[in-house]
Amino acid sequence: MGDQIQFIVEKLNQEPFRKNYNLISFDSLESLQLLQLLSDVLGEIDPKHAVDIREELPEQTAKRMLNLLGILKYKPPGTVSDLSAFRQGLVTGSKAVIHPVLHWLLQRTNELKTRAYLARFLVKLEVPAEFLQDDTVADFNKQYEELMEAFKNLHKEHEQLKISGLSTAEIRRDISAMEEEKNQLAKRVERLKKRVETVQNHQRMLEIARQLRLEKEREESLAQQKQEQKSQLFHTEQRLQRAQVQLKEMQHVVADSKPESLMKKLEEEINFNSYLVTEKIPGEVESKKTSVYYLEKVVAEPAMTQADLTALQSELDEVNAQMNQLIEKRMITYEPTDSKFSMYRQQASIISRKKEAKAEELQAAKEELSSLEKLREQKSSQAHGLEGSEVLTEDEFKQYVSKLRSKNTFYKKKRLEIAEITAEYGILQRTEELLRQRHEAIQQQLQAIEEKKGISGYSYTQEELERVSAVKSEMDEVKGQTLDNMSEMVKKLNAMVTEKKASLAPVIKELRQLRQNCQELTQERDEKKIQYDSCVAGLETNRSALEQEVKGLLEESAQEESNYRYINCMKRNLEIQLQRAKEEMKAYMSPDPQERRRAVREQYTRIILDQENLGKKLRDKQKVVRESHGSNMKQMKMWQDFEQLMECKRDCFLKQQNQAAIGQIIQEGGKDRLVL
């Protein structure tokens, strides 16, 4: 801790603070002085925080410092309870809280300056989602995010240039080299002017060159305007294409619809919008206002300790106990008429909640539909720009996709059938060929054997007889089996029917009794359910009333506590001001002249005397200037005339020199002709 305080004192005694503290004087600072010192350090990091804390409330000071420390990512040590103690210590100016904050800030002042500077531009402004539904707000938000990203990139480039930039010696050498080059160019320009002045009509040539340069600049500007107009024409064509697509869609919708359906849709939309305007949105606005009011109250109040939380929890338990007692009394004094009304109220509340839920679902579906419509328009415009052909509508595209899918499935199915048939055909063809070869070989062998025995054709006749006899025997067996099976089946069915009748007779009697019992139980269950619903509705209404009462008591308690805190702070401020006034009166009434000079009245008196003396001197000086103004103006006019006279003499001298040079050149040219 001693090293920490020593480091803080050393940093505060250096630039730019120059506080001239030592360990004893720094440790003897009061809470208000410590808060002012912390505010000065934060003001050095961010100039917006360079304020006098005596001109603002303690809550505003704590809120301002906490916001900046949060932006600078300062993490106070400890748990959540320690965080509440940290906020309380920051409000009261505790040394245990402010000393670590000063040590952390003074360790990394340059880094924190950069972070505070970046926070001015990179802390994103959160826009509610319902405001982003407006196209103008959405466009501005998008531009805001793009500018933020551009600022990030530029800052990175700036930092890289600072790291990899040239040294001051190199920059000075470059500046000296450019100055030398500038002097050389000035000399060359002077030489060229002298050469040009000897040429005839040089003024006209210079004018023509100037006009040429102007025309070139104009040509460049016209080319740029042409390019801009081309881009505007392209964007206009895209907008026209989108408008044509929308027109076709609207025409298609109008062509497919009837006036009755359109009126029905309009009525539904009007009912939905009226519900939103009259019921849903005002309720949401009121709930948002209430939540904002509670949040403002929470922010305005100081941080709560664990003891406060325990007290509130005990009060909540007492209120819950009272609520349970009231519910029991309500159940004892239950009346059927009230239960009916409560049941109806409960049903109405359930229906209203369902209605709100469905309205929210419908609103979300509409928002999703609008976003999808925008995306579809964007994609259609892109497709139209790439291909240049007409873009299909949604229904046409769905029909096309369904047709394409059906054709694709039909094609795949037929292709599989063809492949299976082709494979089976190849196998059967090969099998047929092998069997034919074997059959031909066996027939040849059999014919050869029959020819040897002298009974050719016997095998064919024998096969036919065997085939006919086999068919006849099979038919006889099938007929006999069918008759036997039918007789056995009839016997079995009759036996099964008698068995089932005998077995189902007691079950049917029992089922009749159970049906009667079920009807009685169902009737009793309906009566019990009605009683349960009425009881639940009554308890719900009592609970809601008690909740409202508890909320009102909590609000009243919070308001009284806030008033107490505010009065306490005002009392503290008045005590401080009273102490300052007493010190001022003590200093002013003191017999010691040194002590009296420290009084604010004496200081302001000296300042007023100094300002009066200064005003007197300035008035004397003004009088002297007014008296000498006319003679000075005449002298200045004579100097201007003298300057014009000298310029005329210089021009005449230069013209005489030019004429002498031209005559000398002409004489030299004549001598050269004589020599030739």
What does this structure look like?
The protein is an all-alpha fold. The protein has a domain at 1-123: Intraflagellar transport protein 81, N-terminal domain (Actin-binding Protein, T-fimbrin, domain 1, Orthogonal Bundle), CATH 1.10.418.70. The protein contains 18 helices and no strands. The longest helix has 131 residues, at 458-588.
Fold blueprint:
Layout (H helix, E strand, L loop, with lengths): L1 H12 L9 H5 L3 H15 L12 H14 L8 H13 L2 H13 L1 H14 L12 H29 L4 H30 L4 H55 L2 H42 L5 H27 L3 H52 L6 H60 L4 H131 L4 H5 L2 H28 L1 H47 L1
Helix pairs in contact: 1-6, 3-6, 4-5, 12-15, 13-15
InterPro entries: IFT81, IFT81_CH, IFT81_N_sf
Keywords: Acetylation, Cell projection, Cilium, Cilium biogenesis/degradation, Coiled coil, Cytoplasm, Cytoskeleton, Differentiation, Phosphoprotein, Spermatogenesis
Protein name: Intraflagellar transport protein 81 homolog
Q: Please tell me how large the radius of gyration is.
A: 53 Å
Strand-pairing-aware structural class: mainly alpha
CATH topology of the domain at 1-123, by name, is Actin-binding Protein, T-fimbrin, domain 1
CATH class of the domain at 1-123: Mainly Alpha
- Termini separation: 107 Å
Instruction: Tell how many strands the DSSP assignment holds.
Output: 0
- Classify the helix fraction into a percent range: over 70%
Number of helices: 18
Shape: flat
CATH superfamily of the domain at 1-123: Intraflagellar transport protein 81, N-terminal domain
SSE string, helix = H, strand = E? HHHHHHHHHHHHHHHHHH
Strand residue content: under 5%
Unreliable sequence segments:
none
**Major pleated sheet:** none
Mean pLDDT: 78
**CATH architectural grouping of the domain at 1-123:** Orthogonal Bundle
Coiled coil: 137-246, 309-382, 504-584
Domain IFT81 calponin homology: 3-126
Organism: Zosterops hypoxanthus
GO cellular component, one term: intraciliary transport particle B
